[in-house]
Amino acid sequence: DQAVGGCNDALAQAIGLSDIVGEGFVRVGTLPQPMTTDELAAHIGHSLGDVVRVMGDPSVVIDKVGMCSGAGADEWHEAAAMGAQAFLTGEVKHHIALEASAAGVVMLEAGHHATEEPGIFALANALQNSALVVQCNVRVTTSRVKAYH
User: Fold this and answer.
1) Which of 50, 88, 118, 134 could staple 67 via S-S, CB 3.0–4.6 A?
2) What contacts 80, CB < 8 A, 6 or more positions away?
3) Which residues contact 63 (CB under 8 A, 6 or more apart)?
4) For residues 17 and 44, what is the distance between their CA atoms, to the nearest angstrom?
5) For the segment 101-142, what is each residue's pLDDT rounded down to a tens digit?
């Protein structure tokens, strides 16, 4: 998750962030243009192909997003300290959502799989294109349950 080019960097790239900063597990980046919470949730849902649950004010205008793929909700404090107004992760416990919301940070929950999948494809690509790769093909296959709503 925290490796350069790993899950969190691939997630930031998948949702179109620029000027990405961070260390350890947390990344913070700038959106292509400011978006309301609802617009951001729709953008992330489209980018990741999954439903995004919003916890916080739906009308807040956001330009910096923090993230930690998978079950990284505990890391929102670090992202907020780096200027993030919203935090994307895979799983958010209720008490964490309330705490972040009270501090003015919108939490976006996109599912564990959806937030880590970009990293899986980045790893496959890195393995396939490695100078050390033996003559083989690296493929990623997924089995996904379709969400109905």
Assistant:
1) 88
2) 66, 87, 100, 103, 105
3) 30, 31, 33, 34, 35, 85
4) 11
5) 999 999 999 988 888 887 777 777 777 777 665 566 666 666
Q: Which two tokens stand for residue 48?
A: 């990741």
Q: How far apart are CA 56 and CA 98, in angstroms?
A: 8
Tokens 């799989």 correspond to what residue? Answer: 113
Q: How far is CA 16 from the centre of its chain?
A: 10
Q: pLDDT tens digits for 48-90? A: 988 899 999 988 999 999 999 999 999 999 999 999 999 999 9
Which pair of tokens denotes residue 139? Answer: 């493929």
Which residues contact residue 110 at a Cβ distance below 8 angstroms, ignoring those fewer than 6 apart? Answer: 44, 45, 48, 50, 51, 52, 53, 88, 89, 90
